[in-house]
Amino acid sequence: MSDTTKKKTMVADVDRNLYDFKKAEKDVEKLASGLTEDIVRQISAKKHEPNWMLEHRLKSLKIYNELKVPNWGPDITDLDIDNIVTYVRSKTKMAAKWDEVPADIKDTFERLGIPEAERTSLAGVGAQYDSELVYHNIQDSVAKKGVIYSGIEEALAGPYAEMIKQHFMKLVPPSDHKFAALHGAVWSGGSFVYVPPYTTVDIPLQSYFRLNSPGAGQFEHTLIIVDKGAYLHFIEGCSAPKYNVANLHAGCVELFVGENAHLRYSTIENWSKNMYNLNTKRAKVERNGSMEWISGSFGSHVSYLYPMTILNGEYSKSEFTGITFAGEGQNLDTGTKILHNAPHTSSVVNTKSLSKSGGIGTFRSAVTMTEKAHKSKSSVSCQSLMLDDKSRSDTIPLMDVRCDDVNVGHEASIGRIDDEAVFYLMSRGINENEAKTLIVNGFANPISKELPLEYAVEMNNLIRLEMEGGIG
Amino acid sequence: MDTILNGNNIPVLTWNHFNVNYKQIQLYNRPDDKNNPVITGDSTGMHIKNKTSLDNFLISGNDAKTASYIIANASITKTITVNKDNSVETPLIFDMTLKDNDKLTALFDIILEENSHANIIVSISSSANAAGQYTDLIRIHAKKNSSLTFTCLQLLGENFLAFNNAIAYVENDAKVTIHHMPLGGKTALASALTDLHGYKAASEIYADYIGHSRQDIDLNYVTRHYGKKGLSEIKMTGLLLNDSKKTARGTLDFHHGCKGSSGNESENVLLLSKTAKNKSVPLMLCDEDDVVGNHGAAIGALDEEHLFYLQSRGIDETSARQIFLDSAIARLKNLLPQNLAAKIDTYDKEVLCNESL
Q1: Residue B332: inside a domain, yes or no?
Q2: What is the pairing mode between strands B187-196 and A290-297?
Q3: Which chain A residues contact residue B274 at CB under 8 A?
């Protein structure tokens, strides 16, 4: 057996063990599959939420039934909402100590490294298992600064209820698209963060979403308000084991960045390859505030993911750094949208896309300069690397400029690994596989260096594993 | 009843609310007014007849309905065949002057036999304030080692709807250059589709426009690479004045098997008005790894440093804008023979002189 073949076997084992482990469903409460008014009312009743939220859910359901599935983007005809269970929960209460979390769920998060990360490098952690949070905690020192980090449903029953009501689905209204309406109808779980004015959260908060149940949907809602002059780094992670039925993720993230505030939002999306990831993320930035997105998309069968920034205040800024790796059986349609809606705003987009083993990677973007965006600037750069001739890579950017004194630039390139670079490395004694891995790592490096360390290591490992599996 | 047509369809759809996936237009059902083009220039080694020849031309892609409309309604039909091994550098010009309320549809077939080379211009114009409708389709078959430079100069009146279309089938070592100048009309659409089937087949598509008044310009250019070592370029350049608006779609589509191909796409838009609007959608679709594709776009106002330089030499901002407009006009004139350059002068005097800068 050749050395390469041995590596291939090892890769498959390691890859499966990393995220693809399943836990038997025990003590689980599941609603019927499909989407009806009765199911929406049942979800609402379980949460003892205020009346306005039930009305919001029912209004969203009506909009969902009225809207059509998008006529653009990857094919999602195999996604049948009648087969999706919109609510699954383990019969456990949310805990503030890992010891109080049921053993099998705790074991899941241990294997994903969440408690260890909390001990070493995080200011707070939220962990969601299927439809409900099972763990939420924040360091005392951060809580003493007045920072609120809790389950959003918990917050809805507390002193921040009015703040949530004022912000909930205001950036992403249910009418935005069909899956935003679906989210509005059946959302469950997710985190609420409030950072008071002029408060700096030195170390990141992290929410991790695990979907264990086959054929289920996850619809968590993340609402973050960073008040003026404050700073926060928030990390979102997600994964699921692979099943032979479709799973659905239609979460929603709404971020409000105040004057002179800064929010860095990092995501590594590593859903299983039976997942339809139809997630919506949006941020609004006020005067002189800045929003920074770091986004890595590696998992899912189909993704529609375009984090959007609304630059609503003068001198506000946005930076989007993203990488997408589409492998076998994946159709990942990712990118970003930026709306410049105030003078002197600026945005920078830098993305990398890799396609391999028949995977389809699409970069889709939209930069809009409204009539108010005087003296604003935007620069978009998108590079795609094709790793074989079975894969596909598309670039679909859009620029909508309604103001004259702006500067909008766009550049994109597409190609494969340069043979001369591979030859150069091989002439220095590096074998072809390692040479290609080095080049791909170099290609991804501008993105991976922006990721939190543990995620950067994870991304480099994923690239190495994918590359090793592709040779031979 | 009018025909409603979704023209200039983008090859891959994107968000609908930006209104860039297609351009909906209303066309007359029987646009069959007659017009005899004045033919000038060098037709040595060419055959011109008043019938079409490429009726089996395979029209695939999203704009087949536009082609069907023009084929069904064409009242002017021509075939220009360039003989084998024939090379003509001096342009052959088809000049059509339309009257107010004319509704005209033209269908031209251009066949380049092996190793032939030609330069063909179609010019369409009318008085500055005329109304009407003009649509055309130019079908090009470039056989082995042939080359064609095709230019379409559209200078119709301010109430015209104009829609210029070109499609080209390009064989081994052949090259087709299409240059659109959609300068006139209230609504000016232009599209070109080049299919590079041959080994080392090449195409260049250029569009130059000067959006003025309330003009609505809509462009859609697609190059599809099928053969190996193909080479393509799409370049759109223009400036927008007053309340004009422009949508430009450019697509490089690398099909599986087009190994060693290379494509470039670029767009430069100069905005000279606070109320002008620009949309750009530069697509790159890639189903083959052994290709190189690049695209870039720059959209903005006059560069502040350039403006400062001119102002430091005593040229005020309005004059500086006029210099950029004049240079765009001069560039177009340099690309055309003298008699057509004179038409651009007239257009400048009758249409652009009324624009505020």
Answers
A1: no
A2: unpaired
A3: 403-405
User: In terms of residue numbers, what domain contains B148?
Assistant: 3-303
- Residue A2: pLDDT band with limits 50, 70, 90: very low
Model confidence pLDDT, tens digit, residues B99-144: 999 999 999 999 999 999 999 999 999 999 999 999 999 999 999 9
Residues of chain A positioned with their CB less than 8 A from the CB of B290: 389, 416
The answer to the question of residue B324 being in a domain is no
Q: Enter the ipTM.
A: 0.94
The answer to whether the CB atoms of A411 and B294 lie below 8 A apart is yes
What residues pair up with B27 in beta bridges, in sequence order?
B3
pLDDT band, very low/low/confident/very high, at A17 (cuts 50, 70, 90): low
Residue A11 near residue A465 (C-beta atoms within 8 A): yes
Local structure of B341: helix, strand or coil: helix
Angle at A259 between CA A257 and CA A263, to 5 degrees: 35
CA distance A470 to chain B (A): 15
**Residues of chain B with C-beta less than 8 angstroms from the C-beta of A401:** 269, 271, 277-280, 299
Any alpha helices (H) in chain B, and if so which ranges?
64-73, 304-312, 317-334, 338-350
Map tokens 């409204």 to a residue: A370
**Using a CB-CB distance cutoff of 8 angstroms, which residues of chain B are in contact with residue A73?**
13
Tally the domains of chain B.
1
Among B299, B303, B357, which would you mutate to test the A interface (most chain A Cβ atoms within 10 Å of its Cβ)? B299
Q: Does B323 fall in a domain?
A: no
Express each pLDDT in A157-173 by its tens digit: 999 999 999 999 999 99
- Residue closest to B139 by CA, chosen among B114, B122, B153, B123: B122
Show the 3-state SS of A212-267. Answer: CCCCEEECCEEEEEECCCCEEEEEEEEECCCCCCCEEECCEEEEEECCCCEEEEEE
B351 within some domain: no
Q: Mutate which of B246, B278, B292 to disrupt the A interface (most A C-beta within 10 Å)?
A: B278
The answer to whether the CB atoms of A398 and B274 lie below 8 A apart is no
Contact A395 B295 (CB under 8 A): yes
Orientation angle between helical segments A453-470 and A3-19, nearest 10 degrees: 140
